[in-house]
Amino acid sequence: MGRKNLVLLGISFFMSLFFINSAFAIPTFARKYRTSCNTCHIAIPKLTAFGESYRLNGYQIPEGDAAYVKEEPVSLGAPAWKRVWPEAVWPGMIPGPVPLSVRIISDFKVNQASEAASTDFNFPHEIELMMAGLLDENLPFFAEIEFEKETSSSSVETDVEAWLGFYNLFSNALPERALNLKVGTLGINPLPMANDHLRIGKNHYLYNDWRLSSASSGANGFRLRDHRGGLELNGILADRFWYGGGVVNGVNSTDKDGYIITRYKFGGTPFSKSAPGGGTEEAIKGKASGFWVDNALELASFGYFGSTEIGAAATANQEDDKFWRAGFALRNTYQNFDLNAGYIWGNNDDPYGSSSAQNINSQSWFVETNYVFKPWLIGELRYEALDVDMPTDFTVTNLDRARWVPGLIFQIRPNIKLVAEALIYSKYKVASDRQNNFVARLDANF
Amino acid sequence: MGRVISIFLFLVIFCSEPSFAGVIKGKVSTAKLKAPKDIVVYIDKIEGKELSSSGEPAKMDQIKLVFIPYVLPIIKGTTVEFHNSDDVKHNVFAVGTENFDLGTWTKGITKSYTFNKLGDTAILCNVHPEMEAYVFVLQNPYFAITDENGQYQIKDVPSGSYKLKAWHNRLKPVTKDVDVAASGELSVDFELK
Fold first, then answer.
1. What CATH fold (topology level) applies to the domain A3-445?
2. A118-163 tens-digit pLDDT
3. SS3 for A196?
4. Which of A30, A176, A197, A314 is 20 to 30 A from A205, alpha carbon to alpha carbon?
5. Is the separation of the CB atoms in B165 and B140 below 8 Å?
6. A79 touches chain B (CB under 8 A)
7. What CATH number is given to the structural domain containing B173?
8. Which residue of B has its CA nearest to A70?
9. Which of A19, A21, A23 minimizes the C-alpha distance to A325?
10. Are residues B108 and B176 in the same domain?
């Protein structure tokens, strides 16, 4: 490993804050390039190495996108109009067909609550409308509206994510895609290898799915995986180092939080390329047809710093909670194996406002593995734990828990999958938290 | 009579310009275009020679809201005739090495412009912003434009050492040093990024 790589690796460990990104299974891209979902996805929405490069390069094939496009975009001005600027509008383009994709998720759930078991046909559990593409070279966009009900009897909740990217900024002075800007409502994914939007199974990662229990004075309701409006700068350096950082709305929109995330990849497909280069091609020889194969080791770290007001506004009871989360993760992919682990720390200095004077430390970690038995059959096993130092000066629900997530993923078609997944708690403090369950999920994208 | 013929042949052989010339051919490839066509491969400069246009005009048409050809390489001093074959009005205005606006006209009308500066000029239509073409003005007639497969061939190149360049409006130009022999073929491939 060269000195430059060592320096970048060091930076990736010592820089820390947080990042945002999203990318789901987007059939619009399959149509655009006339290619299978498996070009980008091991199983929707989990990305192949190529798919990750495509995403990080602003929904563009890194070595040159236009040559592969089969659905021609509509020109909003020939490129030569750039020479006329500022006397003309800078030219752009829009996708030819409307870049709309639909995702329908239906769940059959067997829930073992504390007392009795129940079953639920939650058909559909979720419908997502997604749009994504390019408004010009290096001008990617993404928009998603999500309609979801937790159970068949729940009311429908909506969620929106939308952003516009300005990629390859200052390209005359900087390396290609060294500086990109994203503006919009962004999904926060602090550990890229455990990206909640791109998880292969059904259950969210515990490390970014928990929030502090409510209290009479209120509590900091921050949750790592929530979408937030803001700005993000990111980029790829030396092909294998990726950074992202930005400023987003806090729990209360008046507060602004900051984050940074870094990642470095040894071996396999660099972030800036479509395929492995050099000797790594040898490593995958013999399994070259396996679209999921990318023999690599990836490290990532993040930090998130925020603050929010707790308690009624403009009263003596309102107090400010300053909090942070930080963590690191590693992922090793080798042939059919995918091993992934992460550790996350956190601290809130006053999360319960006037109810408690104590600060709260938290730790969570996870280890998971995927194994591709067949291109259409993938096994998953995850163990994850959460440990929150609850306040001792008043009573609030204890959040400590640990659980197993075993599952099988069947690719019925490249765009349709069936997930059979269980959630088994091995540790819980409150009986009502013991929500062991089994879910059969049908996930269709078109 | 035989003496006259002998003297004539002597003059032709020894007093005329040497006609030794080679052929440069090759292939241009790029991952950034659907097809490596419309790439101009040309000898940048031939020293000591004033090369001028033959006087024959070049033509660029506007057909079904498209400039044809997309790239028009010409030698300095060439007049280009811009024709409108469409039922709709078209404009021709240029930005780049040369800057001009020929105005807007209807079907069947042709307007001309003589290009006297070396380099590329984008041709636009301000009625239809999606239309564009390029006129590429060169110092000498030793150029070619690639076909669908990226193939090109430049014939009758005088022997000598030159800088051979490949240009496309969307790609970074590439230059190669070449030595053209008095006869035979020289193969030069390019990769544009």
1. Porin (2.40.160)
2. 899 999 999 999 999 999 999 999 999 999 998 888 899 998 999 9
3. helix
4. A30
5. no
6. yes
7. 2.60.40.10
8. B34
9. A19
10. no
